[in-house]
Amino acid sequence: MPVPVITIDGPSGTGKGTIAELLSDRLGWRCLDSGALYRVLGLAAERRGVSLDDADAVAEVAADLPVDFVSGRVLLDGEDVSEAIRTEQAGMAASRVAVHPPVRDALLQRQRAMACPPGLVADGRDMGTVVFPLAPLKIFLDASAEVRADRRYKQLKGKGLDANLPDLVEDIRARDARDRGRSVAPLCAADDAVIVDSTVMSIEAVLDRVLKEVRRVFPELVL
Ligand code: C5P
């Protein structure tokens, strides 16, 4: 029996990370935050003085990236980098290393290995198109760039951090353009994905919508 996988893809700021976590908790399944892998890789490459544009050198770092996910924390070489990888700069570095085909290849098996019983919720950009193309349920979460930037703005302000809304809109547009425009595994919905636009939806409403799909595809699950 193949391990059941639910993929949740989409651009940043759509709430897919939150939905993936809530859903995996509800199901008692494992959760893969693939964006965190690319973020850690960007950080590790920068720390080793490797140019983010050097595909082969970054792929070498990716091949034996000492990353661990422990109790919701992200460890790089044993150091807790959970906060360090959440900055806008780390997001941009992640998106730069993510354009290289050898880098994506180097991270592929590591991501697939996360699929173990009873199931996996996988969050990213290419979970449904490349990493788990046979997943029985694929969700693609979208929202306007303005709303996504506004959510990020409130999140940063809520943490007492400095934030500028026009800059955030620009950052989000730049990251989207790079993610959608790259030649390998570009950000796009799989043909068989269920598209959910969260622009005017609360997290609770999105979760309800996703749970409806989960019940449809996995009628045997008690939710
Ligand atoms: O999801 P998150 O914002 O943490 O992802 C950071 C960056 O990592 C994205 O902008 C994207 O460039 C890259 N990424 C990717 N493929 C994934 C997940 C993330 O290319 N599956």
TrEMBL record:
The lineage of its organism: Bacteria, Pseudomonadati, Pseudomonadota, Gammaproteobacteria, Chromatiales. ATP binds at G10, P11, S12, G13, T14, G15, K16, G17, T18. This is Cytidylate kinase. Keywords: ATP-binding, Cytoplasm, Kinase, Nucleotide-binding, Transferase. NCBIfam families: cmk. Its main location: cytoplasm. Transmembrane segments: none annotated. Residues 6-215 form the Cytidylate kinase domain. GO terms for molecular function: ATP binding; CMP kinase activity; dCMP kinase activity. It is found in: Cytoplasm. Pfam families: Cytidylate_kin (PF02224). Belongs to the cytidylate kinase family. Type 1 subfamily. It is an enzyme of class 2 (transferase). GO terms for biological process: nucleobase-containing small molecule interconversion; pyrimidine nucleotide metabolic process. One of its GO terms (cellular component) is cytosol. Its EC number is 2.7.4.25. It catalyses: dCMP + ATP = dCDP + ADP; CMP + ATP = CDP + ADP.
